[in-house]
Amino acid sequence: MLFEPLKVKGITLRNRYVMPPMVTHMGVTTSQAIAYYRERARGGVGLIIVEAVHVDRFSDGHFINGLKHLAEAVHGEGAAIAIQLFHNNVFDCEEVTVSSITVEQIERMKRKFVYAALKAREAGFDGVELHGAHGYFLNQFFSPEHNKRTDEYGGSLEGRMRMGIEIVSAIKEALDPEAVILYRHTPVAMGYTLDESIRFAQELEEAGVDILDISPSTAEGGEHAGLAAAIKREVSIPVIAVGGMEDPEKAEAALKEGKCDLVAVGRGLIADPYLPLKVKEGRIDQIVKCIKCGEGCSRNLWKGISITCTQNPEVGYELCRYRGKEG
Question: 246-256: per-residue pLDDT in tens?
């Protein structure tokens, strides 16, 4: 099943492998970043979700032109491409919280997400993903630990779901019918339960989400991809499982057992961009494995410098492969 195509609205993914959003500190639209993403597309992944980009950046025309080159490079290697959108807790040059942000600022934030989605589509992206996971600002609206509001955007589960649902609805209304909307969600965290996340997933589907990206998809000590499976059982749209999917046997099993529809491989694709192609060709023993050392990826991330990899010395230097050749 790993290599069965999957049609989602206007795109057909060539397989079930997804490269999830991972910050690289390469600049997204630089020649270095474009070569990095292009190499992963050439390696056979079906869908690339570009690392999180603040919605304010989409007002920059030069940035949009750079995104066009990125989308063209990835499409040229046969992969689909989406970009993750986020907003942080800074508004009007001041830090805010979910509980202190005003309704007027909330409305402006929603408009920013819509504008960013439109510009991403204009740049040639197949879709956009809203970053509602891992404690980021949008995720905090869903959290009873963070969201202490007493208006329509807080309190009850319905109130805590409202922000995410309204952004999705607004983007769906603004985009063309073929555009794909993804939503990344952490299923259990910050005081909310899996049952609440299941309800949220159902409401997101109703609002217009086409793919749910569940991260993480396995609870600590729990069944592999069990959290993704719990949500998939209650929705009809495709679900991405995240965590442990660099193991082809586990990834295939998760698909066959109906726990998910797509599998995300993160650091495994940093270590070996050609992992999907090697699996397809039966060259599993040739895969360069991520040893989860965190030395070149996580450590550089916190330093604010371009990621590297102890197992793959070409990470960050992919441009050398393409310079002087096509593109």
Answer: 999 999 999 99
Whether 80 contacts 47, CB under 8 Å: yes
Domains of the chain plus CATH, in order, are 17-322 (3.20.20.70)
| Nearest in space to 237 (alpha carbons), one of 185, 277, 305, 280 | 185
Q: Is 136 part of the annotated catalytic residue set?
A: yes
pLDDT per residue as tens digits for the range 120-151: 999 999 999 999 999 999 999 999 999 999 99
pTM, entire model: 0.96
- Single out the catalytic residue among 115, 136, 317, 322: 136
